[in-house]
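During the first year of the project, the team set up a workflow for recording each protein of interest as an amino acid sequence followed immediately by a discrete structure-token representation. This format lets reviewers and collaborators read both layers of information side by side without switching files. As required by the reporting guidelines, we include two representative entries from the current panel. The first entry is reproduced here exactly as it appears in our internal archive.
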Amino acid sequence: MLLKVTLRPDLSEEEYRSRDAINQSYLKRVHTHGVAHAEADKNSKVQKSKALLIGSLYHCLTLEPDEVHSRYLRAPNVDRRTKYGKEVHAEFEQSSNGLEVVKGDDWDVAEAMSKSAFEIIKSRRDRPDVMYEIAFTGVAKVDYKWDGKLYSYPFNLKGKLDLLTTPWKSKKEQEIEILDLKSMASLSDSDVIASARGSCWGIQSAFYSDCVHKALGSMPKFTYVCSEKEEPNLSREFVVSPEMIERGRHNYLRSLVQVAEWSRNGKPKDYGYVGVTELNA
């Protein structure tokens, strides 16, 4: 049960990251691996992989182009397999002043993807009511039955929407839309479906939709704009079906129950599953 959700355009990136609350990434990890892994991920300080770095630059180029050069730095084109190239790159990283250093080839890929995605989202960007990288915070509780007993457990929630459109004041009947950018290896139907299932897009879609519904009083349309990393770096638009939202809602609620039961029993962060499970794959 969502008790309260508030859109937070005032929330800085630092404040958002430091806020102790459950987000869609956490719920996905609980669904696929369990609470212990989700807790480990939440406390991890592992550096971004190449794929995540390209993806985050792609987001910034598309949604916040004015912020790109305050967050990212394009590395010089040198052959890092050579001693000279390694030295040049190491010296460049040391002088980066905390900015994310991106290789030139990776920067070109992110830029090509961004130009392609922009052709799809530009009609939304021109609307006066659009919001980018908008954070939300909220409070929820889950009521559930475990071993025949009823329990209730509270949660703090948070999330960040890539793009949100709300009805124009002159067009109240216009629908709300959440738009999320995804960077992918390719846009074949089979690859998109595999990514949507494997990365639990349904959980993200349902969690975000329910939170926006609570904040604004209307169920939004949810759209993914996917851009491929391989040439010709095309982009496609995918609208999430009501059935996918329903499955995602079922899965994220189950994840919340798992977290509630894990927390209620005071399991330590290094808790692992015990016992033997029969495998019949």
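The second entry, processed by the same pipeline in the following quarter, appears below.
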Amino acid sequence: MIAGVQLKQVIGPLVDGRIYPLRIDENEDNTPPYIIYQEVSTQPELTDDGPTGHEWTRQQIDVYHPDKYEVRLFANKVVSTINNQIKPSIYGGQQQLHDEAKNLWRQSIDYEFWQTTPTE
């Protein structure tokens, strides 16, 4: 399964479905907390016959929250949920930032997931 689909299914309920790929469009709900995720890179599985359609994907998952401490607690809940429900996955750590333009705290979480990339 594609990692983004898994993320929406698994951690989307934590934010009442406010989980978006890359950015939030104007017509979408930006009430915090919310999550924005993006694919950073992929490492395809290759054989002598070429690509298999399976790959490791590295994802950046950003949790936005108005409170500096609550954003970390919420991000830890996201990590726990992913660890319990998406296998295999590799947790790569977190970083906290402040988004001045939105006046929100952002906890950036790094993960790697195994995904199958269908051709149709």
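For the second entry, the following points were noted during internal review. The mean pLDDT is 94. The chain has one domain: 3-103. Both points are flagged for discussion at the upcoming steering committee meeting.
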